[in-house]
Amino acid sequence: MVRIAVLVSGGGTNLQALLDAERKGILTSGKIVLVVADREGCKALEKAKTHAVPSLMLDKNTLGKAEFEKKLVEALEENGIGLVILAGFLSILSGDFCRRFEERMINVHPSLIPSFSGKGFYGLKVHEAALLRGVKVTGATVHIVDNVPDGGRILMQKAVEVMDNDTPETLQRRVMEQAEWIILPQAAEMMCRTIDGEKENTL
Amino acid sequence: MVRIAVLVSGGGTNLQALLDAERKGILTSGKIVLVVADREGCKALEKAKTHAVPSLMLDKNTLGKAEFEKKLVEALEENGIGLVILAGFLSILSGDFCRRFEERMINVHPSLIPSFSGKGFYGLKVHEAALLRGVKVTGATVHIVDNVPDGGRILMQKAVEVMDNDTPETLQRRVMEQAEWIILPQAAEMMCRTIDGEKENTL
User: Fold this and answer.
1) Helix or strand holding residue B106 (H, E)
2) Nearest CA of chain A to the CA of B153: how many Å?
3) Contact at CB, B137 and A134, closer than 8 angstroms
């Protein structure tokens, strides 16, 4: 059983999808034991409390990047975290941090990478760019996090149709429902099995 | 009824899909009346002959770009062409040519634009790049041709799953079968209806 930390910045809808996947038996090889938010007032923190998952708020703005990452590493190590999931987490992590959790950190991005990914593409901006280019198909990607934004190995992708009357908001919601909330728990389960398998091979 | 010219450089599988779509009643608002190849020995030319579609070979290498385009324009105008379809056509057309056939020329590209598109991405190179990046979803795009390579307005896109054991060749074949051969005739029909509609509005 891999101990999972979920890092959040906002509403926690991806966190909710992961918690639901635990309940439904989709995510069985790992357990969410810690939720960390990088800012105050995230709804995701309330969701963690509702589900009795220990949570921690590290205000990045107040702490500064270096201190924020130091405290984050401490929390992850104290809790024996085997997999870090970035679930709508907006802070960019340093190269050092990424190397420390190499092959043990995943992110969900709301487009079919390499389209609409990399620096500057986050949240609604991704969907605004997709509509501006006029694509008819978009989707979501779960990938390994390395020190290139949205650049790591792709684990899963799922396509979503764009509708003629879509706004960035309606498209964002449909990409969540039809892609992110499905592939993020599946990819988390896949990663946990891999990490567990590696542990067994080492023992 | 819109008179269609199909421009080809190779095997003519997309031409075949268009001819099949005519036979099956998927492409009903336009008729393929001319096939033009930009090099000798294209199998597509044989396909045109088999289906009794008039064809023309303009060897771009021998003619040079300017003379090639001049003769191409002449052939298209003599034949009263209302829609030009680039179907595996490898020559890059000049800005002048693109402007002359503005909103009357479409192309099929074997990826989900903007991924793996633009300069240098053609044929197998597209699928090699997709496999190298490790995407799990790719597809095809039909778009209006303007003077930016693969940059015009997107008409249709269709997603195709990448398999773990795919080679560039198997992926290319599946993208043709599951996407290009489906959306190219559909987009051609859509364009013919639009062009016919505009004509009626002008009369």
Assistant:
1) strand B105-109
2) 7
3) no
Look up tokens 């496999």; give the residue: B131
Whether residues B154 and A135 touch (CB distance < 8 A) is answered with yes
Work out the end-to-end distance of chain B between its first and last CA atoms, rounded to an integer number of angstroms: 15
Q: Which two tokens stand for residue A129?
A: 């760019």
Q: What are the tens digits of pLDDT across the range A29-45? A: 999 999 999 999 899 99
Averaged over B146-164, what is the pLDDT?
A: 93
Contact B135 A158 (CB under 8 A): no
The distance of B140 to chain A (nearest Cα, Å) reads 10
What backbone torsions phi and psi does residue B116 show, to the nearest 5 degrees? 50, 50
Name residues whose C-beta falls within 8 Å of residue A8's C-beta, 6 or more positions apart in sequence: A14, A15, A35, A36, A37, A38, A42, A44, A45, A87, A88, A89
pTM of the model: 0.92
> What value, to the nearest 5°, has the Cα angle with vertex A114 and ends A6 and B137?
85
Chain A closest-CA separation from residue B65 CA (Å): 31
Q: Which helix (H) or strand (E) holds B32?
A: strand B30-37
> CA nearest B76: which of B43, B101, B40, B96?
B101
**Does B182 contact A at CB distance below 8 Å?**
no
Residue found by looking up tokens 């693109």 in the block: B98
Evaluate if residue B90 carries a pLDDT over 90.
Answer: no
Q: Is B49 on the interface with A (CB under 8 A)?
A: no
Of the candidates B114, B136, B156, the beta carbon closest to that of A136 is on B156
Q: What is the pLDDT of residues B128-144, one digit of tens each?
A: 999 999 999 999 999 99
The verdict on whether B109 is a catalytic residue reads yes
| Ranges of chain A with pLDDT below 50 | none
